[in-house]
Amino acid sequence: MLKAFLFLLFTTITSTQPTGGDIEKSFAISVNSMTPLLDVEKQLIEILENYLEKLERKVDLLKNLAAKMTADNFESLEDPEGYVSNPLNSFRLIRRLQRDWINIESFMIQQEGEEYLEAMEVYHKQMPTATDLEDAANGIYRLQTVYDLEIDAMSDGILNGKQYKYRLSSLDRFTMGVHLFHQKHYYHACFWLYSSLISYRNHSINRILDFKKAKIFELYAEALMQQNRPKDALVAITNAVELESFNIRLLKRKNDIETLAKIHITDALEYKKIEPDFLQLGCRGNISNIPSKLHCIYNTKTTSFLRLAPLKMEFLSDDPYMVLYHDVLTDREILTLKDLGKTNLKRATIFDKSQLKNTINKDRIAKYSWLPHDNTSTTQIIAERIGDMTGLNISGSEPLQIMNYGLGGHFGEHYDFFNLTENTYFTDTYSQGDRIVTVLFYMSDVEQGGNTVFPYMRTVVSPKKGTALVWYNLNNKLIGDWRTQHAACPVLVGSKWVLTKWINSMPQIFTKPCYS
């Protein structure tokens, strides 16, 4: 995730933002959507290298010209008068000063590489926008808070105690500080800005990116002021003034803070760290599932087909019913499903009851695509397999949904059912009844993070490629079971792909009767 954030940060800061009419591609919302950006960066680097080659050729020409003129001028130093007394030399001198230097000046001010700058503009619409960078920063902050990561360790590439070769630069940390400051998370903004200060180096590239240490000190002072720490803020703003003593705005702000520091009598704001709940502990891997009397079996009974080809099934809960199937997707099937889904991924949404429509929400960071059962032979086979796993009739139910999570991708606590008797808005949309069962296939291993947590059931399931989690959302009266509330933890490292099948209740009228 750090590498993805670094790439988004670089391409956003160094590019011109698209206009409001451009399509929002939501790169940070899906790992799959970020991989094409690597090709964009590769093309931009090639353009930059070609531009540099042209500049180098110009520099070489000027160096050769300067060397030749220096040699001519050097000959005149011993006897200047004798040198110009020679008509050939005097003619050459006058011609050089009257003609050559005018042409040299024109050559020096001539804009080089315009064609390469135009080539770069072609890629502007393929670059991340300010919204993408905001999504990426939100993802980093989500990982920081959910997994309780130390900022300095995280910036140095240490994630949950594991060292990675990627790290965040001073500019990256400053960008996080700016983002959190604007989000009014001043406490954490202070830490990011301080980390930016101690990691700042006077690299020449900072001049190109307009990244100055005084700018960090200035915002750090403002963040400290928001924490009711004017004396500390005065130290920070004084450092900024020392770096830019000519900056009238900084001088004025220093005077303001100095005045406030003299009359300040209240204590600094205290940050109260909230104890982690079961969801956060489950995401961090600090929770073990409650041992069950039932463990693993080969399922041979759900359908007659399983007598010939039983499935490995692990019981997780009797009430509500939940099992985990192992090795129910092959690598070839997963590859086919990904190829089918990648072509039409779009940003996932959440239904907003107040607006009665689906909206983009920070609690769901992923992209999805629908795959009808009859789309290919692979989807047909998987649909039949779901029938064998559940013993239910899947005809008339929703299509398969494939999903890929992004930077810090997660899905907050939610239910899969709608309680159609209470929410009549969904009655027409879900004419086949409520979602009685969820089948969640894990299509990838996730190096760190990405657990599925059921807080009320005290159950945590880690993503494992080829497994499928099955649970009942409705009780025997077809009313939603609140104990099935669950969440998808943020992906810390890796790419999480899942395939979901929701089975609706109406087609089960003869398969699974409703009990009063």
Give a concise summary.
The chain is α+β, with helices and mostly antiparallel strands. The chain has 16 helices and 19 strands.
How are the SSEs ordered, and which strands pair?
Elements: H1 2-13, H2 31-75, H3 80-85, H4 87-109, H5 114-122, H6 130-146, H7 151-155, E1 158-159, E2 162-163, H8 170-182, H9 186-199, H10 205-208, H11 213-226, H12 230-243, H13 248-263, H14 278-283, E3 296-299, E4 311-317, E5 322-326, H15 331-342, E6 346-347, E7 350-352, E8 357-359, E9 366-371, H16 377-390, E10 400-405, E11 411-414, E12 435-442, E13 448-449, E14 452-454, E15 459-461, E16 468-472, E17 486-488, E18 491-493, E19 497-504
Antiparallel strand pairs: 1-2, 3-4, 4-5, 5-16, 6-9, 7-8, 9-10, 10-19, 11-17, 12-16, 12-19, 13-18, 14-15, 14-17
The tally of beta strands, per DSSP, is 19
First-residue to last-residue Cα separation: 49 Å
What is the CATH homologous superfamily assignment of the largest domain? q2cbj1_9rhob like domain
- Mean of all residue-level pLDDT scores: 86
Structural domain count: 3
Q: Which secondary-structure class do the elements indicate?
A: alpha+beta
* Strand proportion: 15-25%
**Could you please say which CATH topology of the largest domain applies here?**
Jelly Rolls
Can you tell me the CATH class of the largest domain? Mainly Beta
Spatial strand order of the main sheet:
3-4-5-16-12-19-10-9-6
Main beta-sheet strand count, sense and barrel state: 9 strands, antiparallel
CATH architecture of the largest domain: Sandwich
Q: Catalogue the unreliable spans.
A: 12-24
Counted by DSSP, the helix tally is 16
The backbone outline, from C-alpha atoms, is elongated
**Rg over C-alpha atoms, rounded to the nearest angstrom:** 32 Å
Tell me the helix content: 40-55%
Coiled coil: 38-72
Family: Belongs to the P4HA family.
Signal peptide: 1-16
Function: Catalyzes the post-translational formation of 4-hydroxyproline in -Xaa-Pro-Gly- sequences in collagens and other proteins.
